[in-house]
Design goal:
By secondary structure, the chain is of the alpha+beta class. It contains ten helices and twelve strands. It folds into three domains: about 90 residues, Alpha-Beta Plaits, CATH 3.30.70.1820; about 50 residues; about 160 residues, Tetracycline Repressor, domain 2 (Orthogonal Bundle). The strands form four sheets. The protein has a four-stranded antiparallel β-sheet with strand order 2-3-1-4. A three-stranded antiparallel β-sheet has the order 5-6-7, covered by helices on one side. A three-stranded mixed β-sheet has the order 8-9-12. The radius of gyration is 36 Å and the shape is elongated.
């Protein structure tokens, strides 16, 4: 009897184990179903992500295509714009008078050059009259015949030594890039009159090679001399090639932030102080000091602001530059007895005359305050 009871207990135990195994199997099946559902959802999400990635890839491809197409269209527009200006010429330096007949004035000039008069489509001054400016507005001339324009260009050597200049009618962006190269051209002609150098649109052709604004630094010459000159009493500077200029590229660490030039520091803080943080951000990301200057010009400030807060900004940056930029400090120390002059047309920071103007050495001819030159002199006195 006892053995029967033991066997019965064993059978009961086995049944409990079987029941437990069944429960575990049911739980495993439920877990497996849950896992299968999660896997199915994951597969659906992967499929959605793949579809999204394919869409992103397609959009990126479209962006690349549209960018290339835009660049091609911009080149075509630039070529068309250039062709439309083919018969145009800009004449600079002719004195302006009230009620003048521009066509008669221009044909009189061409007659003196021995090439005119010509039949002209259109002749007029560019821009609006400014009574406060002493500089005459340029005159744009559109020739009927392209050959007449070329004859006139070939005769422009007779204007050497005068204040009258003949040049092509360039698109604003091309002219801006050309103006950046002009100091280099002037320096080449000054140091080597026999050198073959000429501006071709926005490039400089020198000894058979074409240089752009980015590659002009490869010309085998002392580029610092391009924007720096001096006499017994003054040091004149202008442009990014002169270490004295605010456009000179250099690294300045001020308040734990790096600036690529004095100009970038000034324009950034000018915009921040005058409620234009979005332009200030662009200035920090600008590719060159000159680009920072162009961006900063969007924010207009008063003369009083320049003479107070503007001066303080420049003092801060110039002090750091004098300590960390050896080319700058060397020029200061070797010319500490002289007066410094920013040879630009700016009425406050500069002397009111460009670096290329031969009259710049005559102080009586200055129309600008030359505050930048005075600030540099202050930096020298502090050293």
């Amino acid at each position: 009897m006892a053995e029967v009871l033991r066997e019965v207990r064993k059978i009961d135990g086995i049944q409990k184990d079987v029941t437990s195994i069944k429960v575990n199997m049911d739980e495993m099946q439920a877990s497996l179903l849950n896992t299968q559902m999660q896997l199915s959802e994951a597969c659906e999400e992967i499929a959605i992500l793949k579809a999204g990635q394919n869409k992103v890839d397609r959009l990126q491809s479209e962006i690349v295509y549209l960018k290339a197409k835009t660049e091609l269209l911009e080149k075509k527009i630039e070529q068309q714009d250039k062709y439309s200006r083919r018969e145009n010429m800009v004449v600079k330096g002719i004195p302006e008078s009230a009620h003048e007949d521009c066509q008669a004035v221009i044909n009189n000039l061409f007659t003196k050059l021995g090439v005119g008069p010509f039949q002209l489509q259109r002749v007029h001054r560019l821009g609006f009259a400014n009574k406060t400016s002493s500089r005459p507005r340029p005159i744009i001339v559109r020739f009927v015949c392209f050959q007449d324009k070329m004859k006139t260009f070939l005769s422009r050597g007779q204007l050497r030594g005068t204040n009258i200049y003949l040049q092509d009618d360039l698109a604003p962006d091309v002219e801006k890039r050309q103006q950046e190269l002009r100091p280099v051209l002037n320096h080449i002609r000054k140091t080597n009159p026999n050198a073959k150098a000429v501006l071709v649109d926005d490039k400089l052709r020198f000894e058979g090679r074409l240089y752009t604004r980015e590659t002009v630094k490869d010309i085998p010459m002392d580029m610092t001399a391009v924007g720096t000159s001096m006499n017994d009493s003054h040091v004149f500077f202008s442009g990014e090639y002169s270490p004295l200029s605010n456009l000179y590229p250099c690294s300045l660490i001020i308040d734990d932030r790096e600036y690529k030039s004095v100009e970038q520091y000034y324009q950034y803080h000018k915009c921040m102080q005058n409620g234009k943080p979005e332009i200030a951000k662009e200035i920090l990301q600008s590719s060159s000091p000159r680009n920072a200057m162009y961006l900063g010009k969007q924010v207009k400030v008063s003369d009083d602001w320049c003479k107070s807060k503007g001066c303080e900004l420049f003092k801060t940056a110039l002090s750091v530059k004098a300590k960390n930029v050896k080319e700058f400090s060397a020029l200061l120390l070797s010319n500490k007895e002289k007066m410094f002059a920013e040879a630009t047309r700016h009425p406050i920071w500069g002397i009111g005359l460009p670096f290329s103007d031969k009259e710049k050495e005559k102080v009586a001819k200055w129309s600008g305050l030359n505050i930048m030159g005075h600030l540099i002199k202050e930096i020298i006195e502090q050293k």
